[in-house]
# Entry
Amino acid sequence: MMHSKLLGRILVALTAISALLIVAVVILVTATIIVGGKDTISWAFLTAAPSEGMTEGGIFPAIVGTALLVIIMSVAGVPIGTVTALYLSEYASRKSRIARAIRFAVNTLAGVPAIVFGLFGLGFFVQFVGAGMDNVLTGGVELRWGQPNILWASLTMALLTLPVVIVSVEEAMKTVPQDFRAASLALGATKWQTIWKIVIPNSLTGILTGGILAVSRGAGEVAPILFTGAAYFLPQLPTALSDQFMELGYHIYIMSTQSTNVDATRGIQFATTLVLLLLTFILNFSAIFLRSRVRARQIT
Amino acid sequence: MAHRNDTVAAVTEHVDTARGTSAATPARPGATPPAGDVRPPRQRLTGEMLRRRFRLDEFLAEKLITAVAFVSLATIVMIFVFVFREAAPIFSTAEKAAVPVGVEEAETYGEEFLGDAGKELKDEQSGRESVETAGAMGDATAENLLGTQWQPVSREPKYGLLPLAVGSLKVTLLAILIAAPIAILAALFTSSFAPKWSKEILKPAIEVLAGFPSVVIGFFALVTLATLMQDLFGYQYRLNAFLGGVAMSLAVIPIIFTVAEDALTAVPKYLREASLALGATRWQTALFVTLPAATPGVFAAVLLGFGRAFGETMIVLMATGNAALLTANLFEPVRTMSATIGAEMAEVVFGDTHYNVLFLLGAILFIFTFSLNAVAELFIRQRLLKRFRGI
# Structure
């Protein structure tokens, strides 16, 4: 049947074209940003502060701010995510209601829009916790914690990236062979000893992967920090948890939309985007590499 | 998981029986104890000994871990509580509609947004201001919220959510219309036709695309794609709903592809083999067997993509022009709900009606994506799995 054969060819061609289109778009976006940013990017650009009303200079404060953000975020988020994964993988039975509720919460959390996290950070951390701390510490006289700062932004981001850590760590814990646990228990070790000496050391790669993926996600999200701590321009680097900070993604956003002379700073915008993109690429590829090692163990 | 727990149970049981028999052996009537056995014959394994001993540290570890695991659950509840808490004053003011709006508050910010049109509007209305209670329009009454104008920073603030909702839907639907066919066809390609080498290009490409920060996609759309598409289509406004939809599709493709591909590869092999054995070609099998079998999963993929696009902020904030126009024209600027929160929250007075309305927008976004995700999960968990088991 010629007719049917032709139809089949068209279908296969369509699917192949779609796949090709995706690859092409990825290359196009990456190439555009590399070409646009490669002339501006330099060692001086990475290590200098913005100058001349943000039309010259570098992005050093934004890099430092992003680094601080993801470090505080990881310190807060990775332990919580790891322990949650530990509970789901080692303690909870699949049918228990609690485990199902927590699993549902993790899935839901992964789907909550980033901007809603931003609102939550503002409503909960800044307005509730922060203002509460001010009331207790200074009697509400001094406004120190009740305003956007790097701590609240980092904690908001930690909650946003929690599902990333949980999923990654749980997957790694599942690949720890049952024999290991059984052998440990048979030798008389308690459950917690088994977890501490067997399960956690064998899932370290997974915990690292989860941390890296969370950092990559956290470094790229802008919406949650729009009103929980990111600042347009700061003459000084943040020195305390109650300071505001500059951030790479936020820098791209304001430089390309709110800056006084958008066209004159195109080079800076492209170069900042390139830095952020390189950062996420490096993080994501190391995570993919580590994950492939975890998965390889699963098969053997 | 269930499987694993069974294994553990089986292993422990096994160990216990082994221990049990060895301990019981000497006491068995008529049996000769082994020569080397020096254990006192009275020792028997009783139920008391087999019972798990209470250990404080184990108990505390388990409780602590369980408590920490509740953080995710608590976060969801707290997002719900705190976003609604800040949105709640609207509903109380909505009832007493005649409360006058704080005029001096409205004046603190306004000109920069409205420009000349706003000034004219103000001049025209300032005469009537003293007579009328501004509350009728200025407060967030139900009538005001359902209105067709979004002008939160004029003397008579208008909080009509309709243009924002329509704007969100326009961009989201466009993004889905572009992303869904491409992503589903590409998923069909990898699951049914692709030679191995092409998978090794496509999979990392999808990972890279999924890893693009949304602000990078937004920047690409704003600077490069906008000019490219304006030259191509020749429409009037550089930033518009169409551009936003196209840019958004880049963020949605990885989600739809990943979930759809999972569903397609989860279709049992025997279904495909049966189809091929009956003489169907590969494409017939893909189109008439694999794809229909995976429909709930593919549908869930589209729903998840929809949720992601609806809540995405940075891309629309940068690429859609952000004018709250209520039109059906796809080539005019739009303002979405998420972009409104992102653009205006930094400039509002805390506790103001405007502030509350922005939180209301957030609450709507939250409820909407929450329901979409719940439905999508239901489709994947129940329908898809049941179907594969049922066949």
About this structure: Residues 353-390 of chain B form the longest helix (38 residues). The two ends of chain B are 24 Å apart (CA to CA). The mean pLDDT of chain B is 78.
